[in-house]
Write a structure and sequence with these properties.
Strand 13 and strand 14 form a beta hairpin. This protein is α+β, with helices and mostly antiparallel strands. Helix 1 packs across helix 2 (16-22), helix 4 runs parallel beside helix 6 and helix 7 runs parallel beside helix 8 (377-389). It starts with a helix and ends with a strand. Strands 13-14-15-18-20-19-21 form a seven-stranded mixed beta sheet, with helices on one face. It has a six-stranded mixed beta sheet with strand order 12-9-8-22-23-24, with no helix packed on it. It has a four-stranded antiparallel beta sheet with strand order 4-3-6-7. It has eight helices and 24 strands.
């Protein structure tokens, strides 16, 4: 069957189209957003539904003077996506933009415009942004009975300056079925199996665009994306072996990674780094109050292993030396009041990945159980030591990954490795996925669990119906320079809040 017919059949024979319309879904998903907004610049991103050329127009709100540019071709090699960088933007302004697609089979014919807006950074103004991660995982997709992925509408209404997606933007390895108990999914052909082909990886990203809540959120809230494992497959590293995995006919993990990267970089509205076109780590300078350091704990890691090596080496790499040097220099050189490190995995929560052939536990992140800094923890210790010795103030870590929300205080007085200044880490997520937790803690860096919320004991992989879906909000006061983190649930209810004074 054609994809639309396939989708309608799974949505329910007679009521398929009506259910899709009621949920605000779109079987030919298109969308627009702005990404990586910094003073004077922003990336515009858009997806068409066929071979087209992108035309962009923009103006500052109320000015009436539209500027126009002809953008890139949107062809099948990028799944009909394209991006265009705007420059010389005025600070502290609302920028309105329109994207029109020129049909290449009917040159000169422009489709109806897709519209969006964003606000540029400004001196003398408060900053507010959100973060979360983990979307359409563990079998929980777009449910038309509840109005789709509602958390995006809740976040949109908070009117943030931007949103950090902390990874697992898709779950390429988590197929959907029509029903899971009382939960009903919209299912597409590409989401009905694990992603292997280029089109299937593209299709996982297209699926999210079917949801009207998600499309509105993209159009009104600038994005800062990073990635983690499920853009490819669960817990992938260079040691991943799927020869015995019956779900996959393609057994080359490097090829699957390459296709996943092509899909992610086609859909992520991030600024391309010329010297490394697939680079995800980067700095978002959002004015004098804030620098965001978006790091990548996935691409450069060594194999997932027992993680207890006493000395650093190829098998203990987590972020890799080039990225570590970039991060340390960026933190040292930052003139912003607050330095937020957006990580795709938490520091002090243990995330396991089975056992090796010797029966030893394998670890997915840096944490490896109580004790001194070993294995991948050596890189984290290096960063924390550097921050202390260079007297870098006002650092905060934000992350997702573990599918619950928490506030962690890292205290050297209660740690095994003590050569660091105390700091906070805040965890949020999932956006629309199974809820889990809590994870075991690791005392290497003195983690203190100040707050956490997760499903009741025995209710792991809880559906979004349990409302254990979370996002975090960060506000920075221009007047006091204080940073306030608030953890919120699916209804937007504030669960926990912490104000941090600037040093």
């Amino acid at each position: 069957m054609r994809r639309r017919e396939f989708l309608y059949s799974l949505a329910g024979a007679g009521a398929g189209a009506a259910a899709l319309r009621a949920a605000g879904t779109d079987t030919r998903p298109v969308g627009v957003t702005a990404g990586d907004v910094v003073p004077g610049r922003a990336m515009l991103w858009a997806r068409a539904d066929g071979p087209t050329r992108l035309h962009a127009s923009w103006r500052t709100s109320g000015s009436g003077a539209w500027q126009h540019r002809v953008g890139p071709y949107c062809l099948d090699g990028s799944d009909f996506t394209g991006r265009l960088e705007l420059t010389d933007l005025p600070n502290g302004q609302r920028v309105e933009y329109q994207i029109q697609f020129e049909d290449l089979r009917s040159p000169g014919k422009l489709a109806e415009p897709l519209t969006g807006s964003f606000r540029t950074p400004a001196v003398g103004r408060d900053v507010k942004f959100l973060w979360s991660g983990d979307n359409v995982g563990q079998g929980w997709g777009i449910n038309p009975d509840i109005g789709g992925m509602k958390i995006y509408e809740v976040m949109r209404r908070t009117e943030p300056d931007f949103f950090i997606h902390s990874g697992d933007t898709i779950y390429a390895d988590n197929p959907l079925v029509e029903r899971v108990g009382e939960w009903r999914n919209i299912v597409t052909e590409e989401k009905s199996k694990v992603a292997e082909t280029q089109n299937e990886f593209f299709g996982n990203h297209r699926y999210n665009l079917m949801d009207a809540n998600f499309r509105r959120f993209l159009a009104e809230v600038p994005q800062v994306w990073q990635w983690d494992d499920h853009e490819v497959m669960n817990n992938w590293s260079s040691s991943k072996d799927i020869q015995d995995n019956k779900l996959y006919t393609e057994k080359s993990v490097p090829l699957l990674i390459a296709r996943a990267q092509r899909a992610f970089h086609s859909y992520a509205p991030l600024r391309i780094t010329p010297e490394e076109t697939e680079r995800v780590y980067r700095k978002i300078s959002y004015g004098p109050l804030l620098d965001v350091f978006v790091i990548d704990m996935r691409t450069y890691r060594g194999p997932n292993n027992y993680n207890l090596q006493a000395e650093a080496g190829a098998d203990t790499e987590y972020m890799g030396k080039p990225q570590l040097d970039w991060l340390k220099q960026g933190l040292r050189d930052s003139k912003a009041v607050w330095k937020v490190i957006a990580a795709d995995m938490p520091l002090g929560l243990v995330v396991s990945d089975g056992k090796d052939k010797q029966g030893r536990p394998i670890f997915e992140n840096s944490a490896n159980g109580d004790g001194p800094a070993l294995g991948r923890e050596l890189e984290i210790a290096d960063v924390l030591r550097y921050i202390k010795r260079q007297r870098i103030r006002n650092t905060v870590w934000l992350t997702a990954d573990v599918h619950y929300t928490a506030a962690h205080y890292y205290d050297p007085a209660k740690a095994q490795f003590t050569d660091f200044d105390p700091f906070w880490e805040f965890v949020s997520g999932p956006l629309n996925a199974g809820a889990f937790g809590p994870n075991p803690t690791d005392n290497t860096f003195g983690i203190q669990v100040v707050y956490q919320k997760c499903p009741p004991k025995g209710e792991q992989n809880a559906s979004p119906l349990t409302k254990c879906q979370f996002f975090g909000e960060v506000g920075i006061s221009n007047k006091t320079k204080a940073l306030t983190v608030t953890l919120r649930d699916l209804d937007g209810t504030a669960l926990y809040s912490k104000e941090l004074a600037a040093a």
